[in-house]
Amino acid sequence: MPVESQYGPYRNFWRRFWAGMIDGVIFEPVSWLDKWIWGAGLPIPLLVIWFVVATSSGVAYSVILHGLYGQTVGKRLLGVRVYSVSGATLSMRQAVLRDCFPIVVNLVAGVALLPTVAAGKNPLHPAGFELSGPSTWVLLVAWATAAWLLLELGTMFANPHRRALHDLIAGSVVMRVRNDPEVRGGANTYQAPVGQVGTRPLSVLRGRRRR
After folding, report:
1. Residue 14: enclosing H or E segment and its boundaries?
2. In the chain, where the domains are located
């Protein structure tokens, strides 16, 4: 379906998928550093600080970049951007709401796993799973994440604007931004060329009927 067609800018699943892969690659050095830190015999206070930083860095990356620019690095490279359904740029509040699930999961799991970290053990290290299996909290996080992912995919493919559950919660929508003037440093709101889906058709997301 061409970009110029009615729902073209919203048909961006694979762009969003590969954008996520790119963002994951960006965080690979964090995984490498994590392995080194846990094997370096550092003092417990430093391990606790690192655990908090490492587990929250991904969410912070997403919230801050979406709140400031509407894009992570991956989204920018793949040509998609997150907007408010009003057509305006995404606010920081909306960016937080989009990531409300990982924020809650990180807070709950982080608090639950801190005693293990305080004992000098890495609660997420696969070697520990071989002896006693993953902890109850790790299993709960894994199952909750899987259920959330299914809900995200279900809601995304159930509507023509490809709004996943986190978009419905935040009042946001992800659009392809080829020729977007804001990406080139232009206007502060998305203004699509005539014939493309831009701010006016976004009113459909708020329940208005187009004439």
Report:
1. helix 13-26
2. 8-183+196-201
Q: Where are the beta strands (DSSP E) in 34-104?
A: 80-84
- Residue 185: Cβ-neighbour burial (10 angstroms; 0-12, 13-18, 19+): exposed
CA distance 190 to 9: 12
**What is 144-165 written as a DSSP string?**
HHHHHHHHHHHHHHTSTT---H
Model confidence, pTM = 0.76
- Rounded distance, CA 82 to CA 202, Å? 13
Full pLDDT tens readout for the chain, 211 residues? 233 334 467 888 889 999 999 999 999 999 899 989 988 888 999 999 999 999 999 999 999 999 999 999 999 999 999 999 988 899 999 999 999 999 999 898 888 888 888 888 888 776 554 444 556 777 888 888 999 999 999 999 998 889 999 999 999 999 988 654 444 443 333 343 333 334 444 544 444 434 4
Contacts of 65 (CB under 8 A, 6+ apart): 71, 72, 73
